[in-house]
Amino acid sequence: MEQFSIGRVLSRAFGLIRDTIGSVGVFVLLIVIVQSGVSLVAQLLFVDDFRLDTAAPRLEAIQAIFATTWYWLVVIISLVAFGLSYGGGLYGLIRQAERGTTSLQECLQAGFSRMLPVIGLTILWWLGVALGWLLFLIPALILMSMWAVALPALVAERCGVFEAFGRSRALTRGLRLSVFGVLFITLLIYYAVVIVLVGALLGSTAFDLAALGQATVLSTVLSIPAAWISGMLFKAILTSLYVETRLVKEGLGTDGLTEVFE
Asked: Residue 165: CA atoms inside 13 Å, Cβ hemisphere, count?
């Protein structure tokens, strides 16, 4: 049996990003652009609600925002975009790992077919981790590591939501410290690349506009690179973790992944 390798997980993830720029990369970028555009339009339509009246209680002003139809429309669209992005993106990346090729059409088809289960699993994932944070830090970290490959398992193996949680628990058993190490390194990469680099190059303008309550085309465009980079990074890491845990626990390389698509 192979031993879990953090270096191999990271190397595989970045290789998948490089090899799927023209398929998964385009798919994720299209969703980011559409989602950003919808958010821009919605903010412009209720921009007055964002400019809080200093004479009014802050809590009431915030509640007024939550009460608007446009706010909840953005929330729903964001959930749909997330389901499409992760359903199709993970599928495309796993296909790339399995057979060395994928396509934009496959990502689109998989995104629509797996969207609802992905949303359901993600909501339950966040509720579980949030409860862990409320109880104590350690339970949340354990759950994050235990459920790290639930989404890839759901997408690749077409299992149910609760079955995917169980599948992730089985695949990560005995490997959770290493899985946590990968997640921690991923967060460091995210903050180093997305927050520091993109923020330094582009973010100041966007942050200044946001502080003024101005949703503009410029501020929206400046947010797209960070959203795309983070989306591709996390999807590729989750895919690579799924492949690695199957390799270690079941002795299956990328050839063995073919079975889950049959």
From this structure: 14
Structure tokens at 148: 């790290």
The number of C-alpha atoms within 13 Å of 2 and in the hemisphere containing its C-beta is 16
Residue in 127, 142, 129, 130 with CA at minimum distance from that of residue 175: 142
pTM: 0.84
Q: C-alpha 86: how far from its chain's center?
A: 6
Q: Under 8 Å CB-to-CB from 76, ≥6 apart: which residues?
A: none
| Phi/psi at 172 (5° precision) | -95, -5
Enumerate residues 6+ apart whose C-beta is below 8 A from 132: 139, 140, 141, 142, 143, 144
Tally the C-alpha atoms within 13 A of residue 164's C-alpha that lie toward its C-beta: 25
Q: Which residues of 30-67 are buried (b: 16+ CB within 10 A; e: fewer)?
A: bbbeebbebbbebbeebeebeebeeeeeeeebeebeee
What is the reported pLDDT for 207? 47
- The one-letter amino acid at 247: L
Look at residues 81, 88, 90 and name the one whose alpha carbon lies nearest to residue 37.
81
Identify the top-confidence range among 31-45, 65-79, 179-193. Answer: 179-193
Mean predicted confidence (pLDDT) in 33-61 = 64
Tokens of 117: 């289960």
> Do 46 and 71 touch, CB atoms closer than 8 A?
yes
Query: Residue 211's pLDDT is what?
Result: 45
Give me the residue label for tokens 């970290």.
Answer: 141
